[in-house]
Specification:
Layout lengths: L7 H63 L3 H95 L1
């Protein structure tokens, strides 16, 4: 018991729960930063896919313009086929990278959601510890008030008995 009569374990419990809530908050903030970084990576990967597709479209457009202006030789078609394969491979790599980044973002979001749930649990436990400590403080104050009332009643009774005894003596 503390000098005020409160159980010191309640203060310790509240301190531990506060520390765990703060740790959970830091973990949540870290997970949030990881999700945001993953989203930036996904945006960059998406832009790489779009750039590869745009390059391929521009190449095809140049081929069409060349064909409409003067025709295309067999060697030109073979070169175009090689370039087309290279563009397709680049697009496939960009898409594979995008898929991997999106999978990573999904995992980061799941970790973020778990951290959010952990924070909610830690906050609920902290609130419970605070409520328990508050109830005990209220009970101690109510008990102290009752003891004061009892002391006042006892003093009044003694005073009355003393006055009554003095009158009859």
């Amino acid at each position: 018991m503390t000098p005020h009569g409160a159980d010191p374990r309640l203060g310790q419990l509240e301190a531990v729960r506060q520390r765990r809530q703060q740790e959970a908050m830091r973990a949540l903030q870290q997970r949030r930063a990881q999700v945001l970084a993953g989203l930036q990576q996904a945006e960059a990967a998406q832009q790489a896919v779009q750039a590869a597709l745009a390059e391929r479209a521009a190449f095809i457009e140049r081929l069409r313009q060349g064909a409409s202006q003067g025709g295309v030789s067999v060697s030109g078609l073979l070169d175009a086929q090689g370039w087309q394969s290279a563009f397709d491979a680049r697009i496939a790599r960009a898409n594979a990278n995008l898929a991997a980044v999106l999978d990573d973002v999904a995992q980061r979001r799941a970790a973020f959601d778990e951290a959010r749930r952990a924070l909610l649990r830690a906050q609920a436990r902290l609130d419970g510890a605070r409520e328990l400590a508050l109830r005990e403080r209220r009970a101690l104050r109510a008990g102290a008030g009752r003891r004061e009332d009892e002391a006042i009643d006892e003093a009044a009774a003694r005073s009355w008995h003393a006055a009554h005894a003095a009158r009859h003596a």
